[in-house]
Amino acid sequence: MPIWKLSLVAWLHKKIVDPLLQILKKGAEPRQLAFSTAVGMALGVFPIFGVTVFLCAVAIAILRERCHAPTIMLTNFVVTPLELSLVIPFLRLGESISGGAHFPLTKDALKLVATGQASSEVLLAVLHAHVLTLLQPP
């Protein structure tokens, strides 16, 4: 097996499998783990990068004992690749649901977003992406 595959397997084991096993060994209830996983996944695919950790922290503060905080945060971490891959589909489906104009995704538009000089068109496109986020089940 190539060395990069071994390091990837070790990283996955260290970052995902070991924390999950620790959570399961601490004796959390299955219903609480399932609920916390669902909350972590629903909040983890929010289409603005960096906001998901804040949203999960707010959910943990609101739900308190009804949720398992490490499970929510671990699920949020695990679904990050899914979040990144769903930004464009959320944007396009949100445009079609709301009837908004098609927003062209160019490198200039992404540069404006990254530098904080986004126009109202960019903000409207982000709102279209949130339309689908609001429709997803918790």
UniProtKB/TrEMBL annotation:
Name assigned to this protein: DUF2062 domain-containing protein
Alphabetical keyword list: Membrane, Transmembrane, Transmembrane helix
Pfam families given in the database record: DUF2062
Positions of transmembrane segments: 38-63
Superkingdom of this protein's organism: Eukaryota
Residues in DUF2062 domain copies: 20-119
